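#lab-general

N.A. 3:47 PM
ok so I finally got the sequence cleaned up, no stray characters, all 92 residues accounted for. can someone with queue access submit it? mine expired

B.Y. 3:52 PM
send it over

N.A. 3:53 PM
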Amino acid sequence: MAGNLGDYLRQKAEHLDVGRADTLVVAQSELDRLYPGQTKAIGLHQGKLRVITPSASIASDLRMRQIKLVEAVRARCADADIERLIIQIRSL
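B.Y. 4:20 PM
back already:
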């Protein structure tokens, strides 16, 4: 019975894409380390991490640091499937 419950929970987690939520948490912590209170990771879909910031200069800096940020998230979250960032300038 325990094996069936484990399989059921694993299937539910895959269906709900809980791994993506974990990746978003890690990505937000990395963003907070670099830009405290200035950015927000709002979504992850098909390898694209969507990030918003109200600052054009931070958006520009994020574009330059994109590769390092993705590597840092992957290092902390093995199943992170981030390929690139989508950066939008808008209010948090």
